[in-house]
Amino acid sequence: MKKWSDTRAPGGRIAYVNGRYLPHGQAMVHIEDRALQLGDGIYEVTSVIGFAPIDEEAHLDRMERSLRELGIAMPMGRPALKLVMRQMIARNRLADGLLYLQVTRGAVRRDHVPPKDPPRPTLIMTMRAQDMTALAARMDKGIAVSTQPDIRWGRCDIKTVQLLPNLLAKQAAKAAGAFEAWLVDRDGYVTEGASTNAWIVDQDGTVVTRDLSNAILPGVTRRIMLEAMAEGQVKVAERKFTLTDALNAREAFISSATGAAVPVVSIDGKVIGNGAPGPLTQRIYALYAARAGIK
Question: Is 150 in the same domain as 93?
Answer without folding.
Answer: no
